[in-house]
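Board notes (copied after class):
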Amino acid sequence: MRRAARRNFLATATPHVSHSESLAEHTVVVAGAGRDLERENTGPIIINWYFTSAGDDLFGRRSLFSALGNLDLQLRVPTEIAAGETSPLRVVVRDARTSALVAGARVEAMLIEPGATDSEDISNPVFAGETDAHGEARADVAMPAGVTRASIRVSVTSGNAHASSHRVQLPATK
């Protein structure tokens, strides 16, 4: 006997929209849903949607991974950073389908110091900006004095597309 899949809801929304015969775009944002979710974990999350208007129904389902759009993210950081020193961080963003460089993408980098547990990690923003005409963002990253190891995580958003790097470990050298 097959068991029914258990449904877990991250969030729901029921917007009310008025429409006419002219072309219009409507966006539904469910604030906070999946805020700490890594992109690679979004595949099994399914978005079910349903729209009804004057007796006509339109519905569909799509994985959150595919709904986010695709960006390729190249992260270039050193393998070690001297404690109290700075080192360059370089992020290059491309459209995953066309390989075209993406100008104007929003880039955010966090330096994460490990705590006793993941929930006790200390996140420090080290960069926020946009990619230039060459799809590139550059910044200097400093390893705070007294920190022996940390990781860096970079998130990039362009339109509906989003990408984030895995945490890249940065051991401090003396």
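Comment from the instructor: The chain is about 0% helix and 45% strand. The chain has a mean pLDDT of 79.
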